[in-house]
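Re: the 365-residue chain
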Amino acid sequence: MFSSLTKTATQIPNTPLSNYLIETLNLPKTQAQSISTQFSHKSLDNPHSVLHYFRSLGFSETDIRSAVGSVPKILFSNVDKTLKPKIDFFLEMGLVGSHLGKFISNNTAILTFSLSKKLIPRIENLKKILVNDKSNEELIKVISRCSWVLTTNPESRLLNNTAFLESCGIVGSQLSVLLKRQPSLFVLKESKLRDLVSRVSGMGFSLDSGMSLHALHTLSALSEESFERKFELFRSFGFTEDEFVEMFRRAPVLPRASEKKLKLGMKFFLNKIDLEKEALIKSPRCLMLSLEERVIPRYKVMQILKSKRLLKNDPSFINVLNISEKEFLRRFVSRFRNDAEELLVYYKGHLLDSLSSSPSKEESP
């Protein structure tokens, strides 16, 4: 009976607080009432101080609404003793203005953490990994991109995973690069991280190489099922498992491309222009290039040059794709003065053939 009475009492809305949140933050009535029931006997003095403080920092109304909506109890935090020391800590790191507001709105619970026992030690651990980051620019990117490294329980995971990666030969600047590229790796369960490293090593990557970092990033970003689907797609175009793995070693970012992009790319290279499969195995990055903006326009230009017999030599199309925009225009457009205008129309105008103008046909199996 007493528990029932207590439950009923705590569900009584704090009408002044509810009205205050509706009027000052434009919160929906249902949300404002729901928040007010959590603080049925609280006055408006503290919420007013908290909102005034956030606004003085330059937080947008949207960010303040988001922060209050996700962690309502911050309305009753002591500004001088609880909020200000933590906010000052992030300000000193370089998070200011709208960037600070956005970070806090997305990670409001961080303001409930102990500054000395949690935030400072966790930040210091990250700084030890991020070598040569004196301005804290990379640190800010990491915590903004993957707040898990601060908001979960990373002390043991971060330290253990860092030690494990170092034992694999990923040290110094490479460790720093990995943290910037895929910070979630550092808060994985150690068993999952060990499994990822084992898979990367099993595919022939040297763990102390830069390519292994890309591979770890890819395998951590894709589920095993998704990675398997990418392999099945390549197999449908005649690639063996060994050939797919070789392409992955040469371009570890390749499996992160969408299945649609990879499929259209292989149809163009293998079926449309009859490129040898071995050429794609040696240069798989070609499949990462934009068909509409780079591959097909350059192919069109090369076809025109060949039809007019303007080329003394027949350059490899793969090499043509890999040169810079400036170099391509110099070597294959501007130097042919009598034909430069026509070539530019095809190149810059993207007058694509039926491959791109009929996507439904091109995407059919």
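The radius of gyration is 28 Å.
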